[in-house]
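Lab notebook, bench 4. The sequencing result for the construct came back, and we need a structural model before the next group meeting so we can plan mutations. Quick request posted to the team channel:

Model the 3D structure of this chain.
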Amino acid sequence: MEQKETLPRLPDIVLFGAPGAGKGTQGEHLIEKFGYQKFEMGSMVRSAIKKETKVGKEAEKYLSKGLLVPDPLVEQILQEEAGDFFGEAPLLFDGFPRTESQREMLENLMKSQGRNFEVIALTAKDKEDEEGLVLRIVERAKASGRTDDQNPETIRRRMEEFREKTLVLLENWKKDEKEIHEISAFGDILEISENIQELVRSFSQKVEKVIEDGKE
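Done. Here's the predicted structure in token form:
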């Protein structure tokens, strides 16, 4: 169990990375350490599927084939589920955004709420790293009994989808002069967690400095 740490002015965070990069694990560390509230698109989609809503049934057709849920469906799910998330707690976005259209949805949503966000990217440098993530997902699925993640070919299609539709978001953010904080997805889990926590502390200090400068 992480020892809770209270920091002022925590920004919302987009935790970005390929399938299997460790977003879920590192997100849980941030929740335990700093009190982040998870804004997880995957959970919203799974909730819609479990409820057997019309949009949930449509989303399930894509997920079963290892494909991304199309943006019109994502937007419908957001409209149904997102409203309850905005409160005092800082938000942690896990698995969202995944396409350029979703990036625009996120930025419009944050602007409407008067909030800012930082991007932390858990990176895989090449195809060999990506294959390592595929094997990581398969082994994790076998250990947990999840049947949906035990087919390597389905996961490779998800990786291909990530390369084609999601990885470009980092470049687009950089073009917009959005700072991207990159950390390797490989290595000791606790060391990765410590590196992310140091980033979060620096975010808090940066926000405090902007506020103080504005008072002068």
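The CA atoms of residues 20 and 133 lie 5 Å apart.
Will bring this to the meeting.
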